[in-house]
């Protein structure tokens, strides 16, 4: 380690071929005395294993909490620079590559992340029999770690660890590596597996959808087990920039930021390395932002072959478990992957949401927060609580929400949605190429199950290209606005507002373009829609546009080329205030 000034310490980590660099890096970081550090890497390959890594019990939102081994732990630094110089960082086993915890002015540039052995396994479907309930799979061997013993396949069998089952299962197109047309998510537990000739294994057991011959199939372990950690975990940090950073594989998300401020990801990506036979990059979302504030920018990035969304930008709903006195409540984190999340801090402004109205209501200011355990906390407010406050009312943090811009990105060939949007501040989605297995763009605040807030109020989606979206066997749309409100809420109430879907090019095989519930002031203008015949339609009876419990919808100056006559469908409430004019080949249905 070289000290080049009083204000910055520099670690030049020199690569040694085949050597585990974890201990060398750890020793250098533990000797840093300053609050400013730069790590300089060579244009070379580095190997990092978990055996001698720094470890910490970590609460990681939307992942599995626990004791984590961390290769690059950065905590309480005022300035961090990772100068990659084209370095290829290869990880082994269960390890979290990068943690930035209570750091500011973080810059990571010009490096790649990968694993020597992925935590997924895959194969090619050779035959199947729905009646007899079996499927024959030629399993990929080289570069993967699995074994068959007594009729059970276990994987990845790395450092003594394996999943309890095959778990989440999905099929892909062999040629394009996109999710197979009409595919369904499967939590697969075969009754038994037997070895046959020529590297083929027969899996016995019921499936939701038996894959077609020639499709590729991937297994990633059970849902409760298959999110160890993201490649980059940013928590309680500010002013973080990733530039020319590519994640080829991750044991969870690619980039995760929670309760942080001002995050930029540019000229970067999450995708499988060129010429690799692997189907999967990250086993969860490419990018994910939970209660981030300030500005979030994703620009000129490429996200492919993840097993979840391209991005998800959201806050957190918590429920009131107990009203203690006129100023204090006990709140509850509801979803198991939220446990330990820091919902609020002193000085934060909090919205109160009281059923049956899902709208944000009175604003309260936090005086103090006392953690009881990983699920419950006591929050004391400066203001007197309303007398109407009751158990199971919902709180949402007003302070920790970002503006969000995604520009010039390509997102394709992956499970789930391209983009999920749930921030109340300005959102701009422009000049992207988007292709999805589920809805390309999803708006879904959820007051149950995931408890991800919340309502949007200023959205511009313009000049994007949407190509063959919603290929899943479950019905979706190019853009889907569909809040999930709990039983206590009014299902007819307006939830999302002020969405502008304008000047986009849509070239897709199925009918549904926009499907919206509980939305007001939705503008759909100047879009060019071409319905192609490249894929078999999955939901040919669905309309192009459908609105339920909406108001003030405007559909104008859009053009359609294709064979469907199923244009615009509304319920009675939505029809009362809809505006339809100057469209080509798009009519209201009777």
Entry summary:
The protein has about 600 residues and is mainly β. It is built from two helices and 54 strands.
What does this protein look like?
- The protein has 590 residues and is mostly beta strands.
- It contains two helices and 54 strands.
- The strands form five sheets. The protein has a 24-stranded mixed beta sheet that branches. It has a seven-stranded antiparallel beta sheet with strand order 17-16-20-10-11-19-18, with no helix packed on it.
- Strand 18 and strand 19 form a beta hairpin.
- The longest helix has 9 residues, at 22-30.
- The chain is globular, with a radius of gyration of 25 Å.
- The protein starts with a strand and ends in a 9-residue tail after the last strand.
- Residues 1-7 have low confidence and may be disordered.
């Amino acid at each position: 380690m070289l000290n080049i000034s009083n204000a910055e310490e520099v670690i030049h980590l020199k690569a040694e071929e085949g050597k585990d660099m974890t201990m060398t890096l750890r020793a250098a970081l533990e000797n840093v005395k300053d609050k400013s550090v730069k790590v300089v890497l060579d244009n070379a390959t580095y190997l990092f294993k978990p055996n001698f890594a720094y470890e910490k019990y970590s609460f990681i939102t939307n992942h599995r909490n626990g004791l984590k081994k961390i290769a690059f732990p950065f905590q309480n630094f005022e300035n961090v620079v990772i100068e990659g110089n084209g370095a290829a960082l290869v990880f082994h086993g269960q390890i979290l590559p990068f943690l930035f915890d209570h750091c500011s002015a973080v810059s990571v540039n010009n490096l790649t992340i990968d694993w020597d052995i992925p935590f997924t396994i895959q194969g090619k479907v050779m035959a199947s029999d729905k009646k007899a309930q079996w499927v024959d799979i030629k399993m990929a061997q080289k570069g993967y770690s699995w074994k068959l013993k007594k009729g059970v396949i276990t994987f990845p069998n790395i450092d003594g660890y394996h999943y309890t089952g095959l778990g989440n299962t999905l099929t892909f197109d062999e040629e394009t590596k996109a999710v197979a047309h009409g595919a369904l998510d499967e939590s697969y537990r075969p009754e038994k597996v037997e070895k046959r000739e020529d590297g083929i294994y027969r899996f016995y057991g019921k499936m939701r959808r038996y894959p077609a011959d020639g499709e590729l199939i991937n297994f990633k372990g059970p849902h409760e087990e298959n999110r160890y950690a993201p490649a980059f975990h940013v928590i309680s940090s500010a002013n973080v920039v990733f530039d020319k950073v590519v994640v080829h594989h991750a044991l969870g998300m690619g980039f995760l930021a929670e309760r942080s401020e001002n995050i930029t990801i540019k000229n970067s990506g999450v995708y499988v390395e060129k010429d690799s036979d692997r189907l999967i990059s990250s086993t969860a979302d490419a990018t994910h932002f939970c209660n981030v504030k300030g500005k979030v920018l994703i620009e000129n990035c490429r996200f492919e072959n993840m097993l979840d969304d391209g991005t998800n930008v959201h806050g957190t709903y918590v429920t009131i478990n107990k009203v203690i006195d006129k100023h204090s409540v006990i709140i509850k984190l509801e979803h198991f992957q939220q446990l330990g999340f820091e919902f609020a801090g002193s000085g934060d402004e909090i919205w109160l949401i009281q059923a049956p109205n899902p709208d944000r209501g009175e604003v309260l200011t936090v005086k103090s927060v006392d953690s009881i355990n990983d699920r419950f906390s006591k929050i004391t407010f400066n203001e007197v609580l309303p007398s109407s406050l009751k158990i199971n009312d919902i709180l949402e943090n007003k302070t920790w929400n970002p503006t969000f811009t995604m520009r010039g990105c390509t997102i394709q060939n992956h499970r789930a949605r391209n983009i999920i949007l749930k921030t109340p501040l300005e959102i701009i989605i422009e000049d992207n190429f988007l292709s999805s297995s589920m809805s390309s763009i999803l708006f879904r605040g959820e007051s149950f199950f995931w408890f991800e807030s919340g309502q949007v109020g200023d959205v511009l989606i313009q000049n994007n290209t949407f190509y063959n979206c919603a290929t899943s066997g479950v019905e979706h749309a190019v853009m889907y606005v569909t809040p999930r409100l709990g039983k206590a809420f009014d299902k007819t109430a307006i939830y999302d507002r002020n969405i502008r879907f304008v000047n986009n090019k849509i070239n897709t095989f199925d009918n549904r373009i926009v499907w919206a519930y509980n939305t007001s002031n939705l503008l759909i203008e100047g879009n060019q829609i071409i319905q192609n015949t490249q894929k078999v339609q999955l939901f040919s009876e669905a309309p192009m546009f459908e609105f339920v419990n909406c108001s003030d919808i405007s559909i104008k100056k859009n053009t359609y080329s294709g064979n469907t006559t199923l244009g615009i469908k509304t319920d009675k409430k939505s029809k009362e205030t809809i505006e339809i004019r100057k469209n080509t080949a798009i009519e209201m249905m009777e």
